[in-house]
Amino acid sequence: MQPVHIIGAGLAGSEAAWQIARAGVPVVLHEMRPAVGTFAHKTGDCAEMVCSNSFRSDDDEMNAVGQLHWEMRTADGLIMAMADRYRLPAGGALAVDRDAFSQAVTAALQAEPLIQIVPGEISDLPDEGNWIIATGPLTSDALAANIRAETGTEALAFFDAIAPIVHADSIDMSVAWEQSRYDKGETEAERRAYINCPMTKAEYEAFIDALLAADKTEFREGETAGYFDGCLPIEVMAERGRETLRFGPMKPIGLTNSHKPEEKAYAVVQLRRDNALGTLYNIVGFQTKMKYGAQTDVFRMIPGLQDASFARLGGIHRNSFLNSPTLLDDRMRLRSRPNIRFAGQVTGVEGYVESAAIGLLAGRMAAAQAQGNDLPPPPYTTALGALVNHITGGAEAKTFQPMNVNFGLFPPLEDVKSGRRGRKDRYPAYTQRAKHDFRTWLTAQ
């Protein structure tokens, strides 16, 4: 049996390789790192997480991404298995020790007899064979140029930003306190998973002024793109209105200052644990394109972070993705070269979970093809099916933008209340239907 070749050992490529091998099909996984690096990656490990350490909500009853977690676990997903093994307290979210996580994914792939990991860059589009391109938003210039030449169109692009990481022992806990929003979580550790830094109105206003005035990274001449709304730099949010951050990542609701329980904070900055040791915390939602010197000055204005020591400052980079509704069919194949599938963030999904999920599906489809079969996508009543439907035809090609999984992608339910008041009934109905339909799809394989 001829092997399936995968370009890129990120979350999508790693998950695809795992699914293919589990189906009994050999895999060759090509990864250019560490010989050819990117500005964002630090290692040559598979499934390295570069922006955040969070897979977001793990609620598979009331949240679409939590439902996607459930579907990936049900499909024996490697990424979710390792995330569960190395999870950190994070309230209702699934956060992981990023180094331990990627090392474990790498070890699992290396231990699988049907998977061969081959170092080196692949820059040309293969003419034959069964291939998956899972190179992510940081696809090498050479390969990206060949993709553009093949598709006859420029890849779309947006700018994505990295949040800073703080050394925990430099946070002033006489000012900050530990608490998850609304005390969410089943254990005491989960209910205390976040460090919260409160701001008065005067402190918030001064912070906004400094944020708006700070030196920002300049784009190169002729380089233009739009931001993805789910990952906006904080200064861009602030430019949209002085109160925007207070209703976004700095919202104070659901939090009570344990030092001053009678005093309601005007705004709150949250930090989330970034490793198992609890020595590193990332500033939640604080992606930024400020220059490094400006970042330290502005972030040290946050009460509790006045003496902060930064393990990593924020950054900004260009993310490229395909106009998938135009270029890909519903089997994730490039219409002009059906021997090539795409998977992960390069397809126009946004987020670690979504990228890995598309890798899971592309891997199963490629394995089915290798065995002489055809695997249809899951019904779009499921989280994975809704996501794939969006990127391969459900979205408007002219205005196509990266998308997180959300209930807005699911087909409507009959006899269930619409609007905000109906969510308590509607969301569980979505996930119950999705679970049933996903199990049916898996059983049919």
From TrEMBL:
Keywords: Cytoplasm, FAD, Flavoprotein, Methyltransferase, NAD, NADP, Transferase, tRNA processing. It is an enzyme of class 2 (transferase). The keyword Transferase applies. It comes from the Bacteria. The keyword tRNA processing applies. Its main location: cytoplasm. One of its GO terms (molecular function) is tRNA (uracil(54)-C5)-methyltransferase activity, 5,10-methylenetetrahydrofolate-dependent. One of its GO terms (biological process) is tRNA wobble uridine modification. It is found in: Cytoplasm. It catalyses: uridine(54) in tRNA + (6R)-5,10-methylene-5,6,7,8-tetrahydrofolate + NADH + H(+) = 5-methyluridine(54) in tRNA + (6S)-5,6,7,8-tetrahydrofolate + NAD(+); uridine(54) in tRNA + (6R)-5,10-methylene-5,6,7,8-tetrahydrofolate + NADPH + H(+) = 5-methyluridine(54) in tRNA + (6S)-5,6,7,8-tetrahydrofolate + NADP(+). Its EC number is 2.1.1.74. InterPro entries: FAD/NAD-bd_sf, MnmG-rel, MnmG-rel_CS, MnmG_N, TrmFO. GO terms for cellular component: cytosol. Belongs to the MnmG family. TrmFO subfamily. Catalyzes the folate-dependent formation of 5-methyl-uridine at position 54 (M-5-U54) in all tRNAs. NAD-binding protein involved in the addition of a carboxymethylaminomethyl (cmnm) group at the wobble position (U34) of certain tRNAs, forming tRNA-cmnm(5)s(2)U34. PANTHER family: GLUCOSE INHIBITED DIVISION PROTEIN A, METHYLENETETRAHYDROFOLATE--TRNA-(URACIL-5-)-METHYLTRANSFERASE TRMFO. This is Methylenetetrahydrofolate--tRNA-(uracil-5-)-methyltransferase TrmFO. It comes from Paracoccus tegillarcae.
